[in-house]
Amino acid sequence: MNRRDALRQTALLSATYFTAPFDRLTDPLRRGYPLGACDWSLQRACNPAVFAYAKKIGLDGVQLSYNSRSDESYLLRPENQQAMREASQNAGVKMASLAIGELNRVPLKSEARTVDWISGSIDAAKALEVKVVLLAFFSQGDLRNDEAGKKVVIERLKSLAPKAEKQGITLAIESYLSAQEHLDIIEAVGSPNLKVYYDPRNAADAGHDPYTEIPLLGQQKLICEVHLKENGNLLGQGSIDWPRIRQLLRQIRFKGWAHIEGAMPQGKTLDEAYPQNVQYARKIVG
Predict the structure, then answer these.
(1) DSSP character at residue 70
(2) CA distance 226 to 19
(3) Burial of 257 (0-12, 13-18, 19+ CB in 10 A)
(4) Rounded-to-integer distance, Cα 205 and Cα 65, Å
(5) Which PANTHER family match (predicted)?
(6) Whose CA is closest to 171, among 181, 185, 157, 159?
(7) Are 271 and 47 spatial neighbours (Cβ–Cβ below 8 Å)?
(8) What is the C-alpha to C-alpha distance for residues 205 and 133, in angstroms, rounded to an integer?
């Protein structure tokens, strides 16, 4: 090999070594994002034991319930926060985000005490060093065709937004509303700390098109976390085109957590279903 050939080969090897790996490490379109599951889906809501189970099935983190029907301020209390910290550290599984699923039963639009719940969840999120609190709007809290309810929610979120901004916590709406309706609420509240918790299955069930909604919300970086769910089916065995969802999330440079929720076929146990869900979900988030 003469000197010119040697230099050419060195340059080629350098380009291959420095360019391709660097792109994979730095380009969000080529990177994965962390995978968790909801503590209620793992049948261990408000229970530190959820972290050991999450570790067992290969998850990176857990989305924690802020409260329960029997304990309206569970994660606001320091002793419970400490129990979660220790369980998380022992398992090597992260606390990813919080969720107030109880808003489905006791709605923000009609129950004033839920404002205190959300305020407390902001404090709990700050103490636990997580950045997102999911606010659920299903069942009794459904906002579809409820303009009066939307107005109350907007006003109550306006009152909570300054605290969320000061603490650096994102409040995330999850509902059956369309992407445009979510945008309207966010614009009316006027806070950068109000975003959307996106669930493609919920969108499809409500008659919306997740494949157009994700780009619409992604243009303004309004999707903070996503749920991976199929009602009554394992992931990959329902009607959602998850490879297409994966590509859309890459296109909007999504960087947040993805959490498995539900995806439990009738007759299967958690131990039977969730290792399969985790295995499939890795293809989406990887």
Answers:
(1) S
(2) 31
(3) buried
(4) 24
(5) BLR5974 PROTEIN (PTHR12110:SF53), HYDROXYPYRUVATE ISOMERASE (PTHR12110)
(6) 157
(7) no
(8) 23
CATH class of 32-285: alpha beta
CA-based Rg of the chain, rounded to a whole angstrom?
21
Predicted TM-score (pTM) of this structure: 0.89
Which of 202, 195, 198 lies closest to 214, judged by CA?
A: 198
- What phi and psi, each to the nearest 5 degrees, are found at residue 108? -65, -35
Domain boundaries, the chain: 1-31, 32-285
Question: Which tokens hold the place of 212?
Answer: 């157009």
DSSP per residue, 131-172 = -EEEEEE-GGG--TT-HHHHHHHHHHHHHHHHHHHHHT-EEE
The alpha carbon of 80 is separated from its chain's Cα centroid by a whole number of angstroms, namely 22
Query: Per the structure block, which two tokens stand in for 109?
Result: 């639009």
Per-residue pLDDT of the chain (286 residues; tens, 9 = 90+): 444 444 344 333 333 333 333 333 334 334 578 999 999 999 999 999 999 999 999 999 999 999 999 999 999 999 999 999 999 999 999 999 999 999 999 999 999 999 999 999 999 999 999 999 999 999 999 999 999 999 999 999 999 999 999 999 999 999 999 999 999 999 999 999 999 999 999 999 999 999 999 999 999 999 999 999 999 999 999 999 999 999 999 999 999 999 999 999 999 999 999 999 999 999 888 7
